[in-house]
Amino acid sequence: MRKEVIVGASVATVATVVVAGVLLARWKKRDERRWRQTQRILRRFARDCATPVPKLWHVAFDLVSDMQTSLSDQSQTDFVMLPSYTSSLPNGNEEGLYYGVNLREDNFLLLSARLRGKHEPITDLQREEVDIPTEVISGSLKELFDFIALKLAVFISTKTKTDPIAPKGKLGFTVSFPLLEGPAAAASNKNVIRWKSFSVNDAVGKELAHEVNEALGKHGIDLRVSALVDATLGDLAGGRYYNRESVAAVTLGLATNAVYVESAQLSPNAGESKLGEMVIDMQWGNFNTPHLPITEFDTALDSESSNPGCRMFEKLIGGIYLGEVVRRVLLKMARETAIFGESVPAKLKTPYTLRSPDMAAMHQDTSENRDAVHEKLLEIFGIGYTSPAVREVVAEICDVVAERGARLAGACIVGIMKKRGRINDKKSLVIIEGGLYEHYRVFRNYLHSSVWEMLGSELSDNVLIEHSHGGSGAGAIFVAAAHSQCEEDDAISPSFVAAAAATTVDDDDDMDDRKFMAAAGTLNDDDEPSEWKDDDHMETASWRGDQVDSIAETTDQSDEDDE
């Protein structure tokens, strides 16, 4: 009997082992199948996002074509640029202490700095960030301006010990328009500085400036605002102060925009102006072309956004969108290949939870086991365990998204220089501001390399790229310096008026909203989150280019092959 029991137990044990072996083999095959599917999703995504040089040139020339059409007849294109004359640019001879305000979505920067001429660096830079209370955000523009003036009065009294008032009493005022995507979207309807479309004439524009100046006077501030201008124009003003060859500025932060200097005679709006050049607010977030590498994830993001079909270029390069595309790819993998386990992490389903600083931290993690990737996945999505192989996949997705965005930005910078005819025989300086460029080292390097790859090695000194002078928001200082040269204190910036005049009025909005001259879709957000890890020193990049026209002779067939 004992022998039979032993034999039976042995048979049962063998059977259990066999069953376990079969199950393990099945699980192994299932995991291998899932991993192959993960790799297929990654490879297809990388292929759809690819930006070879021929495609970049197609994008650049499409931008040039749209720019030319917009300047000649805006009724023939959806890409509407906003012309303004260069009263907002300094000449480099302005000296003294200047003040600035940079208004953002739910906060503003107060700044003061001393300029000593174009041959000396900016000094005595003081900067203070002030959060706007909820009741002020949901109030009127008059209340907002009053709050800004109150904080400015305190700032002047505490930060400035001597010579407290700027020459000729000018205050630079730049506006970084708020985002209408992500967490901020829910509160946008209650935000007095929310983005809208308005029709504004000169009288209303002067009334708006008058209200700002009334608030300044109420609090005993002997400063006056001549203009409210786009923050990217402020960055261009900073570049022009130090270098006459500064011909363009780009914002690469949570959102994006570009401005550049154009010959005034090329604009149908130049009229009888005697100014030889003007600043063009490109609104390049609105740029679109069939050559943009748009994936299924971008299409889904666009369809679920607050502005479907609009601002496609921004949705490919803006910091608010980069992390969201990464999240969508990870979500597809989680659902189809169980890359994070049998159940999809709940937090992974929430849009706009992955921010560009977190994406940069994962992307730039050089540790052997990608420890930063593990930490961010746990912190943001609650994903507790991931293998080193999975972490590597996450980093690769970040790389694909960042490379695409940076190279497209570089291509459009080349397009601007091509439009201005400044590649073959003229030096040009492009000023870039924003957290993506300043703090995201890999993104910055991809942008530089795209310009170099497009232009080659023969014209190395003709396109220079520099970080903005003074950092985030400092453009307001240079705007103040430029306006100190203006004779009429109450003049309103043509850029702001022209921008607003290109839009329409919503009759249901109150008068305060009508007075806020927001321009069509600019989303310049220099207020990058503080968690950026990369503090590398910013360097000037110069890039060579060979015979552009010969490089540009790419065929449609080559582009199709790349796709």
From TrEMBL:
Pathway: Carbohydrate metabolism; hexose metabolism; Carbohydrate degradation. Its EC number is 2.7.1.-. One of its GO terms (cellular component) is mitochondrion. Keywords: ATP-binding, Glycolysis, Kinase, Membrane, Nucleotide-binding, Transferase, Transmembrane, Transmembrane helix. It is an enzyme of class 2 (transferase). The keyword Membrane applies. One of its GO terms (biological process) is intracellular glucose homeostasis. Residues 518-563 are annotated as: Disordered. This is Phosphotransferase. Residues 42-241 form the Hexokinase N-terminal domain. Belongs to the hexokinase family. It comes from Lactuca saligna (Willowleaf lettuce). Coiled coil: none annotated. Residues 248-481 form the Hexokinase C-terminal domain. One of its GO terms (molecular function) is ATP binding. Residues 530-539 have a biased composition (Basic and acidic residues). PROSITE patterns: HEXOKINASE_2. The chain crosses the membrane at residues 6-27.
